[in-house]
């Protein structure tokens, strides 16, 4: 070991490293473009850079100093490498901003007079298509379309529908929650379209005849459940509406929608907190061939019932004067059944190949039956 | 809930209906059959056989050659690999042609290394009866040779599983199911009145209810002189059939009654109970329960518990403690039969996430009048199964709650609400078979008392009325509810038991001969926006409304108020700010699949805050990649003008006032800062945003450009006024067109030039169109040439050259004044 090397390592090493840090940082800051930055980087960390030289010289230091100095040098190296990288990001960002500025376009120019040429015609998503068909069929029966927010209050989604907090039915609704707001209540992503029943009854005087298509959410994800899906809800409030009308309305709808004039429809007693009496509805099909209207099997397709007096009362409607029915069904489910689609998940994946295969023409009118 | 067919029939007299009829009836009356498992059917071909001889296979070390008495007079040669095959054992034999459920193979006669094999001895797994395949099933000596195995093993009793709705706690019992079936005409329900067991001694343990929130009413009874052990075969079979594990006779009896009567019971080992009292109280903070399921629960002051002198023994109505449970050494026991508050049980169960058969019943509400008979029946069976012994007096605390109530039904309501003409006698008969007792009956109505097990009928009414209702209206509605709800309950009972198929369907009466419009103008416009985009070649998507918070933040704000508390996956935790974000990710996925050129659209929600107003309806679209290669038209990258064209096409179709819109270059940060714009009506109202996507956003979603997108804020577009179009303006004189080219500074917008030209003479100038834009070498640096065609429409006379010249001068002057332009020579 030469004296010189020993001295270099031992004379005020801290000051020496501080100076290197200061000078390097200044040099990086002064680098105005990537070329200057690269020169600064090489001068510091390159094969014959200043820091590299110091690191090389470490081997020559006495063992007792090597450790302390090595540590200090490595800390400095990490620090300067970070500074070099940070400056590169800054310069690249500035270069990008400069390029984007140079690419400026006068956005007030009139656009081209036609859409860009496309290899394929566009299409309407099967869910939208089914909603349009539903609207046409129920529209002919005098229903109007009502809508409501996807994020709703616990009261609209549960309480007003006679599902109090401790109700066992809540277990069937795997609810997504948002953080509690100022009122201490957690908003929910609506688990069904039924909160719009409540909103409608609070804003419209009976008689009421609405359907409510829309997005719904449940914390469930597997081959047959999606965390987001679509439902359509129906609500009729009038003076002399009976369970017979509910049956008639649903039979008329199902036969029109599936385009099967004699589609078997079966009604089973059931329970929902917001209807009484409640019914589940099955349609006839063949499990073997998947054909609707054929075979001896039944497929559950929707839930329904007479609006529960508590739901009416919660909305300020006197159940002695008014009564009616409600129903709800899954839009994906009836779409899949109608078109023989076998998998739920691709509905939401936006795979162009699936969309092109399943989309409806944007120009096709929809008729009442079979959606033409 | 599961039960076996023979178990169900045990509760019924004269029910000889076949299983399919029973299943169909259950489903129709609201006890939906979710499955029927006839375990015996798959086991039908298998018989008990006798192994006459088991010797080493001559040609295989690990096989044995057996001679097997098949029980039908034949002795078969069977090659068997099971290590436990031995001479003299009884086993289960399958003959060629039989389907082996565990392997999915149909058995054939074979020859294994020179020895014929004419059958197969089965393991439990091969029969589909569990995982045991260590060896063949080793039957006891006394298993009858040749008997069907399923019958011998008690597996020929089909298991029915029904879904019980939350209102029907009473149907979480075989007896409750039987009662409904009987009401529907399948047999009659047998009476249940167990004889009291004499009390032979004073109970060493008494009940204390320290807090009425913890328990309303409780019975208990001590047993002594017991010999606890495995329960008998019939009981074990029954529990196994419904998926329970037999433990010992005492515990098995409690499980039996949980399902048979829907009456959960608990049985303590008396020697493990500390002190002379069991106390119903609320748990104290810091207390814990080591439960029977092996888990430990940290209790809260909201949990009702059963405690002895040493601490908590049970979480009331949910699960018992491990410490004081009965085992085979138990000789003295104490039976608990309690009534807990359904709401408290539901909330405790949810808080601790414990799902037990007891909780499912308590949270639906139990039959308070069944407590004493159930305790007698359980006492009798425990004593019978545990070699005699004797029972103490019944000790109790609290009082049976008053469950007695009445409900009235006006017969007219069966048609008026239910739509069915039901003869009053039939309706009353159904109610009586369900356990309702007639208190009074007239021509118009019947009043019945509600049975103790039907807490869902004529129940206490808790409303959750909208706070904004006027008080008078709220009160009337609440009174109306109280008046009609019990009657609705009864209508439902009659209709469901009678059969909903007997309600004739009636088409909805039409309110108006021609239906009113079903869509509001805004809804109709939304449908139109979809069609415009589809007609412009875009594929409509329906993406999830939530996405990764990090990705959402690329499109502006990702507020905490819209972060899901319980997302299903970490990349689906934030309500998206705009559907454009979803489309970008979809485009990236499509590009990764080899489809970089996409045109996607979505009309859906963009979320700014959780209030109803914070959820906007947005029509978004995205084009990526290049236009197709074609001989007539060269391929080119998509750009901001494509997106602007799409956005304006929607706005025009939806009736936005196009002439009043302005465009500025201040698009939000997810657009290219120099190639994005905002369309406004007036100074503030933003109708749309468009532009090329910022390269940083593209990099973040993994898409290599080009990409151009737009968002039209459908809620912001004003509804067009319903105005008559009036007569068309059809001037008699030809229009005149003149071209002008202006040299302007680069920063001058085309819009400024067009506006100025249009404003030069509002009466004469019908249209101004930009037909050329040039910037290049032939012009001074920083200058652009904009060429416009101005259309003049005279109305009174053909224009003279002088008039045209005058208007032209006004056009030039207006543009020069507004933009500092110079007319190009």
Q: Could you describe the 3D structure shown?
A:
The complex is a heterodimer of chains A (372) and B (825). Chain A has 12 helices and 9 strands. Chain A has helices at residues 3-10, 13-30, 34-45, 50-57, 63-102, 126-140, 154-157, 195-203, 243-258, 309-314, 331-339, 352-358, and strands at residues 144-145, 151-152, 188-189, 208-217, 228-238, 265-272, 275-285, 297-307, 323-330. Chain A has a 7-stranded mixed β-sheet, sandwiched between helices. Chain A has a two-stranded antiparallel sheet with strand order 2-3. The radius of gyration of chain A is 35 Å and the shape is elongated. In chain B, strands 30-33-34-38-37-36-35 form a 7-stranded mixed β-sheet, with helices on both faces. Chain B has a 5-stranded antiparallel β-sheet with strand order 6-5-4-7-12, with no helix packed on it. Chain B has a 5-stranded mixed β-sheet with strand order 15-26-17-25-18. In chain B, helix 5 (174-183) runs antiparallel to helix 12 (424-433), helix 12 packs across helix 13 (471-498) and helix 19 runs antiparallel to helix 20 (801-819). Chain B is elongated, with a radius of gyration of 41 Å. The interface between A and B is large, with 130 and 154 residues.
């Amino acid at each position: 070991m030469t004296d010189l090397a020993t001295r270099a390592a031992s004379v005020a090493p801290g000051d020496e490293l501080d100076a290197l840090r200061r000078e390097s940082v200044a040099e990086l800051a002064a680098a105005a473009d990537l070329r200057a930055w690269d020169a600064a980087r090489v001068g510091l960390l390159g094969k014959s850079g200043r820091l590299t030289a110091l690191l090389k010289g470490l081997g020559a230091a006495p063992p007792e100093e090597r450790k302390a100095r090595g540590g200090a040098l490595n800390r400095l190296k990490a620090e300067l490498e970070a500074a070099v990288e940070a400056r590169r990001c800054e310069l690249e960002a500035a270069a990008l901003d400069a390029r984007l500025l140079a690419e400026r376009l006068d956005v007030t120019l009139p656009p081209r007079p036609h859409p860009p040429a496309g290899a394929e015609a566009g299409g309407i998503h099967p869910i939208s298509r089914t909603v349009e068909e539903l609207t046409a069929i129920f529209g002919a029966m005098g229903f109007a379309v009502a809508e409501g927010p996807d994020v709703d209050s616990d009261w609209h989604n549960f309480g007003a529908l006679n599902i109090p907090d401790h109700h066992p039915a809540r277990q069937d609704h795997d609810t997504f929650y948002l953080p509690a707001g100022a009122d201490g209540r957690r908003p929910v992503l609506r688990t069904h379209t039924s909160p719009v029943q409540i909103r409608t009854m609070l804003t419209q005087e009976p008689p009421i005849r609405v359907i409510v298509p829309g997005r719904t959410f449940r914390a469930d994800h597997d081959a047959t459940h999606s965390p987001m899906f679509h439902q359509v809800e129906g609500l009729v409030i009038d003076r002399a509406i009976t369970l017979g009308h509910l049956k008639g309305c649903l039979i008329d709808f199902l036969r029109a929608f599936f385009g099967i004039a004699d589609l078997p429809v079966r009604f089973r007693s059931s329970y929902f907190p917001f209807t009484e009496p409640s019914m589940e509805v099955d349609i006839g099909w063949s499990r073997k061939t998947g054909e609707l209207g054929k075979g001896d099997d039944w497929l559950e397709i929707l839930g329904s019932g007479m609006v529960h007096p508590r739901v009416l009362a919660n909305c300020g409607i006197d159940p002695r004067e008014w009564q009616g029915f409600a129903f709800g069904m899954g839009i994906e489910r009836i779409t899949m059944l109608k078109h023989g689609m076998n998998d739920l998940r691709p509905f939401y994946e936006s795979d162009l190949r699936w969309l092109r295969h399943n989309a409806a023409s944007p120009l096709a009118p929809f008729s009442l039956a079979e959606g033409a | 809930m599961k039960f076996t067919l023979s178990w169900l029939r045990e509760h019924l007299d004269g029910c000889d209906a076949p299983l399919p009829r029973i299943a169909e009836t259950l489903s129709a009356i609201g006890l939906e059959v979710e499955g029927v498992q006839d375990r015996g059917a798959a086991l039908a071909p298998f018989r008990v056989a006798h192994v006459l001889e088991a010797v080493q296979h001559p040609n295989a070390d690990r096989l044995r050659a057996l001679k097997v008495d098949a029980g039908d007079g034949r002795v078969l040669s069977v090659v068997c690999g099971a290590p436990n095959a031995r001479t003299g054992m009884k086993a289960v034999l399958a003959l060629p042609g039989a389907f082996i459920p565990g392997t999915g193979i149909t058995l054939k006669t074979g020859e294994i290394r020179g020895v014929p094999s004419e059958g197969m001895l089965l393991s439990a797994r091969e029969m589909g009866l569990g995982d045991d395949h260590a060896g063949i099933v080793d039957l006891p000596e006394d298993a009858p040779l040749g008997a069907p195995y399923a019958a011998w093993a008690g597996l020929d009793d089909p298991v029915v599983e029904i879904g019980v709705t939350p209102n029907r706690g009473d149907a979480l019992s075989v007896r409750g199911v039987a009662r409904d079936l009987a009401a529907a005409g399948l047999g009659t329900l047998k009476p249940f009145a167990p004889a009291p067991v004499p009390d032979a001694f004073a109970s060493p343990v008494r009940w204390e209810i320290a807090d009425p929130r913890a328990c309303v009413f409780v019975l208990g009874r001590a047993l002594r002189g017991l010999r606890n052990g495995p329960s008998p075969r019939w009981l074990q079979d029954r529990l196994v059939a419904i998926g329970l594990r037999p433990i010992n006779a005492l515990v098995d009896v409690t499980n039996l009654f949980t399902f048979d009567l829907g009456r959960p019971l608990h049985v303590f080992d008396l020697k493990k109970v500390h002190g002379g009292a069991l106390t119903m109280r609320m748990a104290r903070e810091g207390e814990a329960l080591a439960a029977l399921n092996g888990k430990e629960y940290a209790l809260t002051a909201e949990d009702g518990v059963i405690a002895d002198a040493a601490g908590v023994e049970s979480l009331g109505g949910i699960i018992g403690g491990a410490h004081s449970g009965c085992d085979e050494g138990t000789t003295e026991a104490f039976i608990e039969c309690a009534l807990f508050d359904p709401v408290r049980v539901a909330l405790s169960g949810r808080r601790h996430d414990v799902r037990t058969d007891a909780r499912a019943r308590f949270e639906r509400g139990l039959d308070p009048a069944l407590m004493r008979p159930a305790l007698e029946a359980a006492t009798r069976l425990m004593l019978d199964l545990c070699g005699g012994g004797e029972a103490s007096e019944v000790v109790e605390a609290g009082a049976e709650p008053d469950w007695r109530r009445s409900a009235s039904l006006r017969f007219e309501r069966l048609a008026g609400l239910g739509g069915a003409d039901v003869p009053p006698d039939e309706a009353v008969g159904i109610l009586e078979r369900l356990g309702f007792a007639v208190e009074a009956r007239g021509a118009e109505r019947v009043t019945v008392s509600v049975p103790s097990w039907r807490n869902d009928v004529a129940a206490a009414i808790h409303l959750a009325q909208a706070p904004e209702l006027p008080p008078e209206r709220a009160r009337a509605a609440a009174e109306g509810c109280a008046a009609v709800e019990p009657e609705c309950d009864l209508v439902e009972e009659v209709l469901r038991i009678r059969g909903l198929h007997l309600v004739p369907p009636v088409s909805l009466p039409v309110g108006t001969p021609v239906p009113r419009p079903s869509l509001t103008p805004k809804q109709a416009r939304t449908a139109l926006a979809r069609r415009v985009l589809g007609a412009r070649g875009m594929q409509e998507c329906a993406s999830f409304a939530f996405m990764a918070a990090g990705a959402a933040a690329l499109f502006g704000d990702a507020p905490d108020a819209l972060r899901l508390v319980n997302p299903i996956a970490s990349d689906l935790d934030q309500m998206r700010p705009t559907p454009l974000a979803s489309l970008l990710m979809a485009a990236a996925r499509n590009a990764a699949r080899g489809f970089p050129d996409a045109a996607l659209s979505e009309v859906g929600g963009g979320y700014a805050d959780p209030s109803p107003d914070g959820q906007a309806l947005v029509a978004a679209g995205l084009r990526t990649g290049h236009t197709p290669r074609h001989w007539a038209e060269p391929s080119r990258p998509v750009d901001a003008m494509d997106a602007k064209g799409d956005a304006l096409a929607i706005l025009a179709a939806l009736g936005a006032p196009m002439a009043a819109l302005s465009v500025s270059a201040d698009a939000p940060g997810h657009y290219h800062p120099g190639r994005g714009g905002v369309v406004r009506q007036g100074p503030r109202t933003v109708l749309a945003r468009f532009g090329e996507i910022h390269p940083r956003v593209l990099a973040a979603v993994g898409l290599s450009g080009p990409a151009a997108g737009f968002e039209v804020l459908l809620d912001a577009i004003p509804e067009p006024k319903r105005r008559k179009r009036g007569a068309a303006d059809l001037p008699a004189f030809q229009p005149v067109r003149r071209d002008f080219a202006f040299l302007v500074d680069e920063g001058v917008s085309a819009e400024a030039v067009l506006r100025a030209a249009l404003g030069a003479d509002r009466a004469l100038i019908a249209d101004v169109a930009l037909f050329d834009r040039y910037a290049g070498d032939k012009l001074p640096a920083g200058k652009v040439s904009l060429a416009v065609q101005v259309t003049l429409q005279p109305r009174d006379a053909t224009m003279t050259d002088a008039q045209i010249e005058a208007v032209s001068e006004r056009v030039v002057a207006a543009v020069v004044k507004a933009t500092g332009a110079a007319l190009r020579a």
